[in-house]
Amino acid sequence: MTGFAHLHVHSYFSLLDGTVSPQALVERAKQLDMRYLALTDRNSLAGAVEFYKHAQNKGIHPIIGAEIDFNDMGPMVFLAMDADGYSNLSNLITVGNLRGGHLQFDLKLNDIFSRKRGLIAICGGQRGHLWQHIRKRDLKAAQQHTRKLKGVFGNQLYIAVQHFDESDRLYNLRLRDLAITMQVPLVATNDVFLCHAGDWETRRALRAIAQNTLIDRATGVGTPEQYLKSGKDILALLSYLPAAIS
After folding, report:
1. Which of 74, 41, 81 is nearest to 149 (CA)?
2. What is the spatial distance between Cα 96 and Cα 105, in angstroms, rounded to a whole number?
3. Which of 10, 70, 197, 224, by CA, is between 20 and 30 Å from 164?
4. CB 13 within 8 A of CB 47
5. Cβ atoms 161, 172 nearer than 8 A
6. Beta partners for 158?
């Protein structure tokens, strides 16, 4: 499935969370015959240059991005469409780190109004506010959230759907209905932290270190399904959604 692109991917530059080097991600994407691959580390572009070089060497089109944490909107993924987008993304990350201080990140949606040019925005991931509204069946809040984001990003806004287990089917169908109502396109993502499913134990250990706790008590460890799957596998899991999904 050469047309599919992973657009929400973390390397080990998402410190104590991602498990994979940018080079390993690129090599795995090449094995899967993918033409495009994004790198979207959390509040960071530290791996962007390394990723870009490896991707170009392997004949893969690199998409530079980041997952940004907003205090008032939760995490969102941003992809740079051009030099302006990369510059604005760099600026957003700098502002968030300088304002937050050591090991903190402080950014609000208002910060993006003068820094949104050249950026594609993706909301709807399972750590985000939109997903929480959908999970609680608070459709009014979900519509208000989407309307607010659409007012900022216009046609550069996408809603992500992710399928890790069967309980996600219902939530994704609600997201589909929301996307139709709000006229926002859907995009399939896998929130990748692993190269292979077997790498999950490494991620659990990293999260435990980050939280100074035992592995069995670590939170935010995700699922073994968050690995770099083939596009065919991703779209097969989401076959109950419209065939036009990106």
Report:
1. 74
2. 5
3. 70
4. yes
5. yes
6. 122
pLDDT tens for the chain, 246 residues long, are 347 999 999 999 999 999 999 999 999 999 999 999 999 999 999 999 999 999 999 999 999 999 999 999 899 999 999 999 999 999 999 999 999 887 789 999 999 999 999 999 999 889 999 999 999 999 999 999 999 999 999 999 999 999 999 999 999 999 999 999 999 999 999 999 999 999 999 999 999 999 999 999 999 999 999 999 999 999 999 999 875 565
Of the candidates 146, 150, 172, 142, the one whose C-alpha atom is nearest the C-alpha of residue 160 is: 172
Q: Count the Cβ atoms, other than its own, within 10 Å of residue 203.
A: 24
Roughly how many angstroms between the first and final C-alpha of the chain, as a whole number? 12
Its pTM stands at: 0.95
Cα–Cα distance, 243 to 144 (Å, whole number):
27
β-strands 61-70, 186-188: how paired?
A: unpaired
Cα Rg, the chain, nearest whole Å: 17
Closest by Cα among 218, 216, 207, 154 to 182 = 154
- Which SS3 state, helix, strand or coil, does residue 63 take? strand
Q: Both tokens of residue 205?
A: 């250990």
The enclosing H or E element of 28 equals helix 22-31
CB atoms within 10 A of CB 220: 11
Distances in whole angstroms, Cα of residue 7 to Cα of each of 80, 82, 105, 183, 208: 11, 16, 22, 21, 26
Report the alpha-carbon distance of residue 4 to residue 60 in Å, rounded. Answer: 12
Tokens of 187: 């995009």
